[in-house]
């Protein structure tokens, strides 16, 4: 299967976008040829994965025709009160968009907690498989990992992920972060890690970034950049640079763009 360069980011599902519009967006994306979907356990307060899973099954989309990336480590606080409040908040914002800042402030009070323990990883993987209605995950990432201040010893979780790869429940694993490529590369080298992929924001603009991309690529580490259209007024210039710079031609197969 050839994965599309442009992927579909599912973060807004059951967050600022309601169920009906979320399903409509998934339908349009798939009909336009997109077959890469990026999601996480924490999206939609733990309910977004089921929207994607049901969409794929109900539309009889072959599992091997799409690539799914999910994440763990940010544990959603999901209960009946939050679900009710979320639905009300979506309606309030749709009526008065100016309330979005206030709603975001209130939502931050029930933000997911950080937990990269093996027990949490096991539970998260089981829930992801069930919600996505699949028996394997293409890519699973440690969500929002802090390379400067690692939350715990990485050895146990890597051993767990390696064992799941052997079992066939996941194909690849890696890290999702908002930090720089150089921090990630140094962390991998220090801890003797060779993950399958890393996901980070679309901030590849310095010459040094391409040096690290090449090093990661040599080690077989795939780079996924997200939010290419959410980087301010200079976004189009940066995207053009990503497309036009000759040095990227050799790495074209290692890039997916999630929006």
Key structural traits:
two-stranded antiparallel sheet; 42% helix; globular; single chain; eight-stranded parallel beta barrel; TIM Barrel; alpha/beta; 10 strands; 259 residues
Please provide a brief summary of the model.
This protein has 259 residues and is α/β, with parallel strands linked by helices.
Describe this structure as you would to a colleague:
The protein has two domains: 6-76 and 114-258, NADP-dependent oxidoreductase domain (TIM Barrel, Alpha-Beta Barrel), CATH 3.20.20; 79-111. 42% of the residues lie in helices and 17% in strands. The chain is built from nine helices and ten strands. The strands form two sheets. Strands 1-2-3-6-7-8-9-10 form an eight-stranded parallel barrel. It has a two-stranded antiparallel ribbon with strand order 4-5. The radius of gyration is 18 Å and the shape is globular.
How are the secondary structure elements laid out?
Elements: E1 6-9, H1 19-31, E2 36-38, H2 48-58, E3 67-72, E4 74-75, H3 80-95, H4 100-107, E5 113-114, H5 118-131, E6 137-142, H6 154-167, E7 170-176, H7 181-190, E8 197-201, H8 207-218, E9 222-226, H9 235-244, E10 255-258
Parallel strand pairs: 1-2, 1-10, 2-3, 3-6, 6-7, 7-8, 8-9, 9-10
Antiparallel strand pairs: 4-5
